[in-house]
Structure formats: structure tokens, C-alpha cells
Amino acid sequence: MADYREAPLATRPKTLDPAEYFNLSQDYRRVEQDRAAVRAKLKRQYQVQLNNPLRKELIEDPALTRWVYARSHIYPHFRPTAKTSLIGTLVTVVPLLFWFGVFKTDRDQREERIKAGTQPRGYPLSY
To answer: How is this protein organized at the quaternary level (predicted)?
Structure first.
């Protein structure tokens, strides 16, 4: 932690902030220890079920079930924000405008060269 240098355009992560890291109350530390104990108990229970050589049924992992449900039901829980709107615009509208500009300028330049006589028109595909 002593050799950590902050990036110029990013904030310091909360886990590396000395005020958050060292100045914790006893209640907060106790709550964190209780959460860690619950996580360790659940992990131990899952490992025992997973490594049981006599098991016949599937192991139900609630976290995996929640994750699969969330992945398969994206739109009912989607919340439009300014960030998602900006990303959607950048992904859909900006490439269309970019390619429109590229093709239009290429076509206009080619037409100018044809009118100036420096490039032959070529074979028309339709009359």
C-alpha cells in the first residue's frame, strides 16, 4: 500500500483509502467478521456437498441460480440512465454516421474526378 501511486484521471480505490482502511469502528469490524463467518459457513457447506462421493442429486447453488436468472431476464430489470443512453448512441448511431460520411465523401470525390476527366466512368451496372 505504501508504493501505490494514484492515477491522474482515476480516484483512489476505497480499499486503499487510509481513512477507510485504518479508522474503522469496532462495530463495523464486528459486522464484517460476521459477514465473513457467514460466507465461510456457506462455502464450507457447498464444498461438503460438492465433494460428497455418495451424492445422487444436483447441488443447488443459490448464487449461480440468481446469476442465471439475471442474465436471462435482462430487460425487465434494465434501468435506462444517461450512461446507457450514451453507450447505446455511441454503439449504434455514431458508426452509421461515420460510414455515411466516408462513403459520401468517396462518392463525391470520384464524381469530381469523373467530371474533370481524370478517371473513366467505368461500366454501369444499370441504365
So the answer is: Complex I is composed of 45 different subunits.
For residues 96 and 27, give the distance between their C-alpha atoms in angstroms, rounded to a whole number.
55
Name the nearest CA neighbour of 16 among 30, 28, 6.
6
How far are the Cα atoms of 104, 108, 115 from residue 127, in angstroms, in the given order?
Answer: 21, 20, 18
Instruction: Give the Cα separation of 63 and 42 in Å (integer).
Output: 11
pTM score over 0.90: no
Per cent of the chain over pLDDT 70 is 95
Q: Which residues contact 15 (CB under 8 A, 6 or more apart)?
A: 21
What is the 3-class SS of the chain, one letter each residue?
Answer: CCCCCCCCCCCCCHHHCHHHHHCCCHHHHHHHHHHHHHHHHHHHHHHHHHCCCCCCCCCCCHHHHHHHHHHHCCHHHCCCCHHHHHHHHHHHHHHHHHHHHHHHHHHHHHHHHHHHCCCCCCCCCCC
Cα 14 to Cα 20: distance, rounded to the nearest angstrom: 7
